[in-house]
């Protein structure tokens, strides 16, 4: 049955207006984005099939153009819309962090970094540069590949931080395996970077490891 023939209380758009976006499931939110289904399949059912096929929302959002457009009911236009939507979300999060201290909104920091790292197929190391009020100056990508082998040089971190006149930094990288638990290599390179930055009086406030739907904070573990 087409969604427009469902009872009003069950339609995703009407539910969002009545209860707020947080009340909707991943499939319902995705259905609103898709707007229409395909022959014999409502937008909600198509959304459910997509989530099952990709293995969840994170994997779907991280899909490349070829993977995304290969699915019936999707295409280049929807891929472009999705990329624009995600970039708007990232910029919204960045704007908030540029106005107030990261220490006042740790969840916003986590969400911002996850939006850049979650679902990537390769490991990436990011450096979040903060001013003296712990507001975001910029986010810099320093390495790709396997972090312990991808030349995350402490001197390069120091160089970038000094160039931006940063007063503090937050480190972040992802685990493509989906497991957010830090490795010994992660802890080793964090210690080296922390020691190097301490020589120029720039503290490392946190190191966030992003997995699939989860993340691990070094600061929360008491490792910094």
Secondary-structure element sequence? Answer: HHHHHHHEEHEHEEH
Whole-number mean pLDDT: 86
The helix-and-strand class reads: alpha+beta
What best-fitting shape do the alpha-carbon axes yield?
A: elongated
Radius of gyration: 20 Å
Helix share, percent:
40-55%
Please give the number of β-strands.
5
Q: How many helical elements?
A: 10
Low-pLDDT residue intervals, each spanning 5 or more residues: none
Strand content: 5-15%
- Main beta sheet, described? 5 strands, mixed
Through-space gap between termini: 55 Å
Question: What spatial order of strands do you see in the largest sheet?
Answer: 2-1-3-4-5
Key terms:
5-stranded mixed sheet; single chain; 15% strand; elongated; 224 residues; 5 strands
What would a concise description of this structure say?
This protein is of the alpha+beta class. It has helices at 12-19, 26-34, 43-54, 57-61, 65-69, 76-99, 106-117, 154-163, 184-198, 218-221; strands at residues 124-130, 136-144, 168-174, 204-210, 215-217.
Explain what you see:
By secondary structure, the chain is α+β, with helices and mostly antiparallel strands. Helix content is 46%, strand content 15%. It has a five-stranded mixed sheet with strand order 2-1-3-4-5, with helices on both faces. Strand 1 and strand 2 form a beta hairpin. The mean pLDDT is 86.
